[in-house]
Amino acid sequence: MQTSEIINLNKENSKTSEIFTNIEAEQALIGSILWDNKNYEKVGDFLEDKHFVDPNNQIIFKTISMLLNKNMLVSPITLKSYLPSNDYDFDNLKYLNQIKDSAPSTQNPYQYGKIIYDLHIKRNLIAIGQNLINDTAQNEENSEGAELIEKAENELYQLSQTGNTERKYSFFKEALKNAVNIINEAFKRDGKIAGLATGLKDIDKKLGGLHNSDLIIVAGRPSMGKTALGTNIAFNVADKFKELENSEGEKIITEGGKVVFFSLEMSSEQLATRILAEQSKIPGDKMRKAELSKDDFKNIAHISSKLESLNLIIDDNPVLTIPSLRARARRLKRLHDIDLIIIDYLQLMSGSPNKKNDGRVQEISEITRGLKAIAKELNIPIIALSQLSRQVEQREDKRPQLADLRESGTIEQDSDVVMFIFRESYYLERMEPIKKPEESEDKYNERHNRWRDLCEKAHQTAEIIIAKQRHGPIGTIKAHFDPNFTKFSDLVTKVYDDSIDQS
After folding, report:
1. 35: burial class by Cβ within 10 Å (0-12, 13-18, 19+)?
2. For the residues 118-133, what does the mean pLDDT come to?
3. Distance between CA 11 and CA 23 in Å, rounded?
């Protein structure tokens, strides 16, 4: 298609958008509210003045909303006093009486409102299509095709957030039934947990598993093992996946789940190497350096064949925004019915392109709110790995705190669970005592032996600090960590520090 043809098509689309108007529905809705102010309650939760086409109807509906929200009576006479004056020959009172008297019914305000809202959506869809055609035809700023798609996705996402005519509430009876079903399913499981099992029993005991619609933050300083814990959980959930067919032919997941891992830092090959190292018990650095024996290679080949059926999807696109994540997650949910999303890591994500000038704090806030919204919409847990600020390094006790969450307090606010990873051995190994000039040999040996004892005590151990849990206790879990295979596992002796637990 030639550029001239595209532009002509654009003009035709502009004419088409004019079809998606219904002034009569706008007048009927306003008339029904003027007859009975209670009719506003049926549309006030989703309808806004911007959804109207006629400028006068926009102003009238905006004023009606303002007055009713102040518990004031709305009638043609009272409304006239609050309407702004106009510079053209238009009788507000006459118009209000006309649409009130001509209102076909006062029983269908919701239907009128739905018509108005749906037409607004269609007009905006046409506008988004027109913008995409114009941007593509004109090739402004030499934008790449992927950038144009990203822009269109963002506009569609913003449009989807403007409101919804569908009622989202449920009666307590229905909510209670669903809660009992969840408890029953947990009771029937071996682990007696309500959510997805992480594969780490001590964490599952504390959290009750990973719950649907929850946003879980796993934070730590670099080299603490965030990605390792993320890949461990991803593998454990995907590896345990089991589903059965019930009597009605429906597939029901009995254990585990399908996982999507969004890796913004590492490639899919690097993640696969980590999982291979973990399962084959061959250090990852040996694989990267090709320092493998024939037995090692046979072992890797054997393990890789077993992992081919793993229900794990990796998306290693280095650019990820909330709109694009939402679009991809929706698609994956529809096509593969995914059960868990893991993101590595939060600070590498971007907000909406049109909000990049708002500052990084606002951008992180948009990201965390978006992640929570996606978790609720798809009804699955989302684990987002997160970096901690450098202020941790300035303290003597380097155990992370909620205040250390980098760039925004909304990370803590929007999340349901916040977990920190702390490995004391990381710091101890970098603090080997150096002999002082005037220090005796015995004194130095004493200090060095004390340091070595601390290193041995902390060797291959990690603390997983649950600093926030919306629906349960907080506390610290001791875990085993093998740096050779980047693998977390339960300690044989379960040691808890519940000194900071709270009910």
Report:
1. middle
2. 85
3. 23
Domains by residue range for the chain, with CATH? 3-160 (1.10.860.10), 192-420 (3.40.50.300)
- Residue written as token pair 């798809």: 378
Q: Which residues have CB under 8 Å from 103's CB, separation 6+?
A: 27, 28, 31, 32, 34, 35
Beta-carbon contacts of 221 under 8 Å, excluding residues fewer than 6 positions away, are: 387, 388, 392, 393, 398, 400
CB atoms within 10 A of CB 15: 8
Q: What are residue 260's DSSP bridge partners?
A: 313, 341
- At residue 409, φ and ψ (nearest 5 deg) are -75, -15
Strands (E) located in 439-501? 461-469, 475-482, 487-490, 496-497
How far apart CA 427 and CA 393 sit, in angstroms, is 10
**How many other C-beta atoms are found inside a 10 Å radius of the C-beta of residue 291?**
11
- The residue among 48, 32, 201 whose CA lies nearest residue 124 is 48
Cα–Cα separations (whole angstroms), residue 503 to 182, 218, 468, 500: 22, 21, 12, 10
- Give the pLDDT of residue 495: 42
* CA quadruple 482, 486, 491, 492: dihedral sign: negative
Q: Average pLDDT in the 214-225 region? A: 88
pLDDT digits (tens, 9 = 90+) for 62-112: 999 888 888 888 888 888 888 877 655 567 788 888 888 887 766 788 888
For 340-369, how does the pLDDT look when each residue is reduced to its tens digit (9 = 90+)?
999 988 888 877 665 556 677 788 888 888
**Residue 151 pLDDT class (50, 70, 90 cuts):** confident
Dump strand ranges (E) for 297-409: 312-315, 340-344, 382-387
pLDDT at 110: 87
Whether residue 361 contacts residue 193, with contact meaning beta carbons closer than 8 Å, is answered with: no
**Helix and strand totals (H; E) in the chain:** 18, 12
pLDDT(215) > 90: yes
Angle at 481 between CA 476 and CA 483, to 5 degrees: 145
For residues 472 and 207, the answer to whether their CB atoms sit within 8 Å is yes
**Phi then psi for 17, rounded to 5 degrees?**
-60, -30
Minimum mean pLDDT range among 93-97, 179-183, 453-457: 179-183
437 or 25: which carries more pLDDT confidence?
25
Q: What CA–CA distance (Å, rounded) separates 474 from 419?
A: 9
pTM higher than the cut 0.85:
no
Q: Which two tokens stand for residue 70?
A: 């102040």
- In this structure, the dihedral spanned by the alpha carbons of residues 40, 41, 42 and 48, taken in order and rounded to 10 degrees, is 60
